[in-house]
């Protein structure tokens, strides 16, 4: 280490799947390199270690900009902060006074998940608009809308359906059901724990249309399955368990409600179709004998952990996948015991901190689901949305490419009278801004970051001062609050005062440790196990549901009175854009669009170091490629009636026939014909939510239907670029 080098501990605040330690080496105000922790449970992946290239990227936005070209064109001129803030304040007032505050659309999402410089769950932006009189805000859970709803209706008011990762080491069987933490991290310690599980000889099976990195690293068996059909396999497993008498009847009798109704469905008493493995085989593409074997294994290997990933729930009927998984966990008595799993979203308790701004939360604003933001802009009240939006204010999100149906989104962003974006880069969304404000990265400010659902917090030391003219989002909102005459009410705390406020629930000693060591990880005498109390003491600790039980049957779901899409017991429901959809004639391939290894959603897209990790390419089985005459590495067009992208083909047997896969959210770059040269996945996805009720942050629940993401339910066709040229 060179002289005068300071080492500052922090973390990436992006919505990256983990929360690891970054040790930033700073000399004379410049980041020289980034290391990570010794502790294998806190070690950063390539994305975190590449952060220096992100901070110092030559394309960083350096000063406020005003649009000079057309929206989306990317032509801007430099302006001063004074002019930028005056303009934004003037427009906010004008729109509020002309149309009412609900004409302001407050769109913030997950660009930063720290406690202070963040939009989650409720940040400075919504606080400012509430002081001005209100807003329409962007709501919904793009990660796990289906699972969040399933957990709520099955287990009740608790997000904590997950065990500590260490607890996986007590399992005898781990099912990676659409779960790929080798790539998605999902807890910084997960990969370390899974590697130890493998070394310990725990049996690990992956059920996934793709042979994932996780399957390659840890699993003894890969069961490929047709996307969107997992619930059929699960109910067939439940059928086997029931008809072979392998269920834990005492558990079902003591802790659950409505198993009899589920059993009727399994046995076909209502619809005349027993849900046998033979019934499931043609639906799922999984051999009946494999289903029987896995059912027996799962029912007898107690304790067994059914790890449900977010991938299969990001489908048109993803909530049923989650509900069926929970029913299986209940039938086998694997809930609330070490080594088991409640098959929920997987969060364990957090370190208690005071959230910034949440105290100021004003319930009651109208909202729009992230699945429907474009329609809400295009159609407004006439289309059944709560407001006619005139001004769009975007921070912490690249919603044009991260939410579904990009081409429609691009049309929608032409409509508002005024658009403001806070960004670090000229992203596809930022190109639509009228005023574009440069913000700092998380290494240029101090903050605190909890590991979501993982029981520790990290202090984020400011490594360097703000680069160029960048400011924090918080400073920008404070400046605007002053201009709009609500400066005093906005909570004018300094960054330091805010951090003190956030840390208040911790003991002085723990606060000191967090600041000094960068880490506060309260010891747990044994790994946390979700619902342990309810299982050990059902009388003293009922489940937080109306019946006090695990609701395999839910009256609340029944009350929606929509049995075809929201059945009261878990059921296999066919998805739209599945293999038997008439659209499959024209678009015979099912497309998955999951989390990218080399990016965090749309963030880090532009780093050469990370691009070396993996090419951006569409995975296609050699059998499907042969039918289309495609060679490995060849440029192809992937298309459906929503759009066309250009990308390279990667021929690989790691994906089952009939399914193709394209990772995540690259930076949409349409040519004159509208073909996206960046190969951005959401050009191809449909902006149609799954049927689950929309949940709101901060415990606010709403019966409105529709917020579950569906980015893994798509039909497409692929053609070689050369082939197409030759037909013209
Ligand atoms: N097809 C497909 N679509 C998906 C997914 C998928 O798997 N497939 N995943 C979905 C999921 S799970 C999620 S959570 C969403 C994420 O959706 P988003 O939250 O929209 O995506 P991100 O790329 O994480 O971050 C958004 C932007 O925040 C910016 N940013 C970072 N830090 C700051 C800051 O301090 N201030 C401001 N103002 N901006 C900042 C980044 O530059 C980035 O452009 O995407 C969803 N979209
Ligand atoms: N590297 C990286 N890690 C991340 C993120 C990132 O952007 N990049 N984002 C983070 C965030 S915010 C989130 S919410 C999570 C997202 O985490 P996930 O949503 O779980 O990630 P995905 O890769 O979309 O899906 C996981 C697996 O599900 C499989 N899958 C898809 N559809 C089906 C299906 O119908 N059936 C079955 N059985 N399997 C299916 C996919 O092939 C994939 O292997 O990841 C987090 N971690
Ligand atoms: Mo997410």
Structural commentary:
With 728 residues, the chain is an alpha/beta fold. Helices cover 28% and strands 17% of the residues. The chain has an eight-stranded mixed β-sheet, covered by helices on one side. The chain is globular, with a radius of gyration of 25 Å. Bound molecules: ligand MGD (2 copies) and molybdenum atom.
**What helical percentage do the residues reach?**
25-40%
- Low-pLDDT segments, ≥5 res: none
Bound molecules: ligand MGD, molybdenum atom
SS-based class: alpha/beta
Number-wise, the strands total 28
- Tally of individual helices: 25
Assess the beta-strand content as a share of residues: 15-25%
Computed over alpha carbons, the radius of gyration is: 25 Å
Through-space gap between termini: 61 Å
Main sheet summary: 8 strands, mixed
Strand order in space, largest sheet? 5-4-16-15-14-6-7-13
Average pLDDT over all residues = 94
Sum up the overall morphology in one term: globular
